[in-house]
């Protein structure tokens, strides 16, 4: 007998909804919100939102202020350096593992996502850019079948994504380089090392843009 599909709890739905708001630009660094404001934004009760905020605060994706307010933290130079180091340690390893598992099937699905990303870039859709860029990376990482590393990567993106939203708003989507074509080419060739290096370069380019934005 097949096991019944695992049901997604209300708390997990709310966690995902608020995480997406952080990742994809609804909440930006320095924007203060309240528990009631978040609950109204996602159409939820305050109690499950409070639990999610506690979880995201522990992960560093949110920070508590006075007067019961919360904000997405602004990064500083030292934090960008730490995030760059951590992402370059974890994400290329996920790529290596994913390519070794699924080299023949990954390149086509990644190309489809990257085409949607290119359309968002061409039309200047910041939210679309952030969404499809995330989809590209995590569609790839999920194929590594490495749940511990994957959860670590997700936590790092929650701390990086909001600052990338600032970069998009300041410089536009057309000025954001990536290494997706090189990554897809390497995967198509079954070259895990080259694919990992392409993602490492992609990370460093994006984090460099974030650091630049902090100084202007």
Description:
By secondary structure, the chain is mainly alpha-helical. It folds into two domains: 10-71, Arc Repressor Mutant, subunit A (Orthogonal Bundle), CATH 1.10.10.10; 77-214, GntR ligand-binding domain-like (Four Helix Bundle (Hemerythrin (Met), subunit A), Up-down Bundle), CATH 1.20.120. It is 72% helix and 4% strand. The chain has helices at residues 10-23, 35-42, 46-58, 77-122, 126-142, 147-171, 180-188, 192-214, and strands at 32-34, 63-64, 69-71. A three-stranded antiparallel sheet has the order 1-3-2. Helix 6 packs across helix 8 (192-214) and helix 7 packs antiparallel against helix 8. The longest helix has 46 residues, at 77-122. The radius of gyration is 18 Å and the shape is globular.
Give short descriptive properties of this protein.
single chain; 216 residues; mainly alpha; Arc Repressor Mutant, subunit A; Four Helix Bundle (Hemerythrin (Met), subunit A); 2 domains; three-stranded antiparallel beta sheet; 8 helices; 3 strands; 72% helix; disordered N terminus; transcription regulation; Tscrpt_reg_HTH_GntR; GntR family transcriptional regulator
State the CATH architecture of the largest domain.
Answer: Up-down Bundle
* CATH topology heading of the largest domain: Four Helix Bundle (Hemerythrin (Met), subunit A)
The tally of domains stands at 2
Gyration radius (Cα, Å) is 18 Å
- N-C termini distance: 60 Å
Shape: globular
Keywords: DNA-binding, Transcription, Transcription regulation
Organism: Cognatishimia coralii
Protein name: GntR family transcriptional regulator
Domain GntR C-terminal: 82-205
């Amino acid at each position: 007998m097949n096991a019944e599909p695992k049901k997604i709890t209300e708390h997990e739905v709310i966690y995902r909804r608020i995480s997406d708001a952080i990742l994809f630009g609804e909440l930006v660094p320095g924007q203060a919100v309240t528990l009631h404001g978040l609950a109204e934004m996602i159409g939820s009760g305050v109690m499950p939102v409070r639990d999610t905020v506690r979880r995201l605060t522990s992960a560093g994706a949110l920070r508590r202020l006075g007067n019961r307010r919360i904000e997405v933290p602004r990064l500083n130079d030292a934090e960008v350096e730490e995030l760059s180091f951590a992402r370059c340690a974890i994400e290329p390893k996920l790529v290596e593992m994913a390519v070794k598992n699924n080299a023949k099937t990954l390149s086509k699905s990644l190309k489809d996502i990257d085409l949607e990303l290119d359309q968002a870039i061409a039309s200047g859709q910041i939210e679309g850019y952030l969404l499809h860029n995330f989809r590209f990376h995590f569609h790839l990482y999920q194929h590594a079948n490495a749940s511990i590393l994957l959860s670590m990567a997700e936590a790092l993106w929650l701390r990086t994504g909001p600052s990338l939203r600032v970069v998009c708003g300041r410089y536009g989507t057309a000025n954001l380089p990536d290494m997706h074509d090189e990554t897809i080419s390497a995967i198509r060739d079954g070259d895990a090392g080259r694919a990992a290096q392409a993602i490492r370069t992609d990370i460093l380019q994006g984090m460099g843009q974030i650091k630049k934005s902090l100084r202007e």
